[in-house]
Amino acid sequence: MNVLEYLNYREFLSDFYKSQKAKNSFYSYRFMGNNLGIEHGYLIRILQGKFHLANSKIPKVTKHCKFNKREAEYFEHLVRFGKAKNARETKLHFEKLLSFKEVESRQVEASQYEFYKEWYYSAVRALIDCYDFRGNY
User: What angle do CA 134, 129, 132 make, to 5 degrees?
Assistant: First the structure.
């Protein structure tokens, strides 16, 4: 389970709980809450979307989930993104989250290079999908 694949910290925490519960039947909201310094009933309300995770609890979550430095930073922005109160904050934290995403790159074959040689080849290819094209243009 990779925190970098999430855009909602509650979904991540819920999935984390489920995965831990699947590994160990004794894992509970009470145990998780105790490790995070949160009363288990409050933790459940966080997961239900009724409350937010306090910023002061973020380090405890990162320790409990055994995040590396990059994952911990991502999780912090994930929480702040979920708690954003205006469009500016939302945009700021969303852009931070996007900066963590890795873009897959691969080398283009010589035969594929011709397609990328001119900008309008891609534009025409995209337009073909927009219209009912039957090879009759």
Answer: 35
Angle at which helices 29-36 and 9-23 cross, to 10° = 120
What is the structure's pLDDT at 77? Answer: 94
Nearest-angstrom CA–CA distance, 33 and 40: 5
Of the two residues 29 and 110, the one the predictor is more confident about is 29
Q: Are 60 and 33 in contact (CB under 8 A)?
A: no
Instruction: Please state the pTM of the whole predicted model.
Output: 0.72
User: What are the pLDDT digits (tens) for 114-129?
Assistant: 887 888 888 888 877 7
pLDDT for position 137? 60
Host H or E run for residue 43 = helix 40-48
Amino acid identity at 129: D
Any long-range contacts for 67-76 (C-beta under 8 Å, 24+ apart)?
Answer: 67/3, 70/4, 70/100, 71/3, 71/4, 73/100, 74/3, 74/4, 74/100, 75/3, 75/9, 75/12
Structure tokens at 25: 């039947």
